[in-house]
Amino acid sequence: MTTQKNALVTGANKGIGLEAARRLATIGFKVWLGARDARRGQAAAEILRGEGLDVEWLALDVISDDGVAAAVKTVAVQAPGLDVLVNNAGIAPGYVDALGPDGRYERPPSRENVAEMKATYDVNVFGPVRVTQAFLPLLLAVSAARIVMVSSYLGSLARAAGNSQSPNVMGYGSSKTALNAVTLSFARELAPRGIMVNAAAPGYTATDLNAHRGGRTVQQAAEIIVRLATLEPGGPTGGYFDENGALPW
Fold it and tell me: Which of 9, 40, 102, 140 has a Cα-to-Cα distance from 192 of 20 to 30 A?
């Protein structure tokens, strides 16, 4: 199968990332399925290829400078440019352990684990920065690239301030708030160069991240990611969206 456009989805061997990769490949992209684990990444890519899709595993550990640089070289050998980058890789260490019997998050900020917070920021914040910076030459090599940062409702300060029932997840939530700020920064720089950069909130989706407690399917979650990845010229940039529209920062 011949495709004209290339997309990279990080953390795509399972969950929302895998579904986003599937959806993009279904509409004609060659998709680079980024995953740090070779066995899982190759298995996921094989599943999608079995569906007739043009998908290739890409060794990619978003916290490794050398690993990201190697991934860029791999893609550059086979693709003249990158049309879509979905920064999906994310972690929430300790989240599942902090869920109570009713499924609500019970760890207050005063008992948050700082080491786990640092690990969370390394993947959820510095990972997208590292990957975006490294792949920027390939993104600039096409006429109108799209970058999607996979954020969360928990990244909204307005939502947290105005809703006492919103889970108070300091580590993961604040990492997504920081990612929203990163989104804005890249959008401001890259708008004059034709690249749209937006943050997506896929909602509380049943994935390994939350021991499949989420109420949404990966198919529902991928909808806004794919929509932002395929924006027409003149669409929004520097925004924060779910499938129903713009969200408050």
Answer: 9
Domain boundaries 5-246, CATH class: alpha beta
Provide the pLDDT confidence category of residue 126 given band limits of 50, 70 and 90.
very high
Q: Is-contact 47 35, C-beta < 8 A?
A: no
Predicted local confidence at residue 86, as pLDDT: 98
User: Which residue bears the tokens 């260490």?
Assistant: 93
The two tokens of residue 57 are 């595993």
Task: Give this prediction's pTM.
Answer: 0.96
Active-site residue, selected from the candidate residues 95, 121, 153, 172: 172
pLDDT number for residue 161: 93
Q: How far is CA 187 from CA 89, 135, 196, 202, in A?
A: 20, 15, 6, 20
H helices present in 2-62, as ranges: 15-26, 38-50
- Whole-angstrom distance, CA of residue 228 vs CA of residue 101: 36
Give the closest residue to 9 by CA, choosing from 176, 153, 26.
26
The ranges assigned to domains in the chain are 5-246
Residue 172 annotated as catalytic: yes
